[in-house]
Amino acid sequence: MSINRELLEILCCPKCKGDIRLTEKEDGLVCESCKLLYPIIDDIPVMLIDEAKKLDT
């Protein structure tokens, strides 16, 4: 089961309040502005800045 699409529409990056998108593998949420990846664990997005991983790009 993946993240609910309605939930995805209302979520935003906790750091910049910008838009986020689902990764292709549907295992995380990406903020392009902050270059952060927020993981999805057990179908629950972990939207904590300290838990986010920095993207290499």
Question: Would you give an account of this structure?
Answer:
The chain is mainly β and 57 residues long. It has one domain (5-54): Single Sheet (N-terminal domain of TfIIb). Helix content is 11%, strand content 28%. It has one helix and five strands. Strands 1, 2, 3, 4 and 5 form a five-stranded antiparallel sheet that branches. The model has no long low-confidence stretch (mean pLDDT 92).
Largest sheet composition: 5 strands, antiparallel
Task: Sketch the topology as an H/E string, one letter per element.
Answer: HEEEEE
Separation, N- and C-terminal Cα atoms: 28 Å
Q: How many β-strand stretches?
A: 5
Provide keyphrases for this structure.
N-terminal domain of TfIIb; 1 helix; 11% helix; 57 residues; 28% strand; mainly beta; globular; single chain; 5-stranded antiparallel sheet; 5 strands
Q: Helices, strands, pairings?
A:
Layout: H1 5-10, E1 21-22, E2 28-31, E3 36-41, E4 44-45, E5 53-54
Antiparallel strand pairs: 1-2, 2-3, 3-4, 3-5
In short:
The chain is mainly beta.
